[in-house]
Structures are given as structure tokens and as C-alpha cells.
Amino acid sequence: MKIANYLIVALDISLAINQAVMTKRVVSELFNHLVPYFEMNLRPHLMFQVLFKCHQACRLIPQELIDSNLRRVIGCLSYQIMRLGFEYAEDDNLKRVMLSELPQNTRRWRKYIQYHIKRPELTEEQKLKQQEQR
After folding, report:
1. I need a labelling partner for 114 at 20 to 30 A (CA). Which of 36, 40, 61, 98 fits?
2. Model-level pTM greater than 0.85?
3. pLDDT by residue for the chain (134 residues), tens digit each?
4. Are the beta carbons of 53 and 11 closer than 8 angstroms?
5. How far apart are alpha carbons 17 and 35 in whole angstroms?
6. How many Cα atoms within 13 Å fall on the side-chain side of residue 96?
7. Is residue 9 helix, strand or coil?
8. Would you say 84 and 39 are in contact if contact means Cβ atoms under 8 Å apart?
9. Do 124 and 130 meet the contact criterion of CB atoms below 8 Å apart?
10. d(Cα 5, Cα 96) in Å, to the nearest integer?
11. Residue 14 pLDDT
């Protein structure tokens, strides 16, 4: 996690000096560094915040600099944020991520702006596991 801390500092610096290319590179490196941590049973809450910060940093990158690799990273970030958000019950942040994924510039997407997050029903094993983690 020490490398992740350095990459977070680099992400802050790239956002402060408005270097979209550097932001793109740091977000990709940070996500690739965190991939092994996604398979662990105990994921710290800090990981959710780091992924959320990376996702919001990707939204600041201009459209002309977004390529196929960055689109893949953004998709993976969104998936991991959704997964961790359901574990930590971060409904407000999940709604923010989902809304940022919608192209709201056209009329046909405006009807999706107001929606609710519906959680799937948990089995008894999953309920017990969730209670143990709290």
C-alpha cells in the first residue's frame, strides 16, 4: 500500500497542475496496483475512497484524451466501486457514480436522472457474513 500512497500523491499533483495525460497514467497505474487487493476478503474502507477519487479524476480528463484503455479502466473502476459500495452501504456515492456514467446532454437520458438503487435480496449466509463484518 506504500506504492498506492505515492500514486495518490501523484494523482493529487496531476489534478492540481491540470495535467490530464499524467492523471490518465497515474489512474491506470494505481488501478493496476490495486487489482490484487480486490480478491482479498478484508478490503479496507480506504480502498473505496481511493477508487472513488480515481473515478472522479477520470471525469476531469477531456473527451479527446480518452482512449480504449482508459475506457476499460473507467469501467473496471465503476464495477469495483459498485461492488464495494454495496458492501459498505454507500448509497449516495453509488448514485453519484451511476449518474456520472449517464450522458445527460440529450433529452432521452433525462428520465433516468431520478432513480433509486435497488439492492438484491441477500441469502441467509450472506446476511450472516455481512453482520460478522460489521
Report:
1. 61
2. no
3. 788 889 999 999 998 999 999 999 999 999 999 888 888 877 777 888 888 889 889 888 888 888 889 889 988 898 888 888 777 777 777 777 776 665 555 555 555 555 555 666 778 887 888 788 76
4. yes
5. 27
6. 11
7. helix
8. no
9. no
10. 24
11. 92
> How many of the other CB atoms lie within 10 Å of CB of 46?
11
Grid cell locating 118: 435497488
Cell readout for 54 is 480515481
**Residue owning grid cell 480506504:** 46
Distance CA 11, CA 3 (A): 12
Which residue type sits at 8? I
**∠ CA 14-18-24 to the nearest 5 degrees?**
55
